[in-house]
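Researcher: I'd like a candidate sequence for this fold, 75 residues long. If you have to choose between options at a position, lean toward the conservative one.
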């Protein structure tokens, strides 16, 4: 019976396949992924809302920033 590795790099090193578990240790850095941008999203100030309407506005501003930064889909 043969052995099939779940994780392997194809000949030439252009492609690595992870079929098992990938563990990234604390302090490690992942680069090149679309969602691993070093750019931070715009700051959302602490809410000082005193009414439900103001709280909804603050919450919607947060949602907008999450969507604009790519952390949340538009729809």
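Model: Candidate sequence:
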């Amino acid at each position: 019976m043969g052995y099939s590795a779940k994780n392997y790099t194809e000949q030439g090193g252009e492609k690595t396949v992870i079929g098992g578990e990938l563990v990234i240790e604390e302090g490690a850095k992942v680069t090149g992924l679309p969602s691993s941008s070093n750019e931070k999203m715009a700051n959302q100030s602490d809410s000082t809302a005193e009414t439900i309407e103001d709280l909804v506005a603050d919450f919607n501003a947060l949602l907008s920033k999450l969507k604009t930064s790519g952390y949340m889909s538009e729809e």
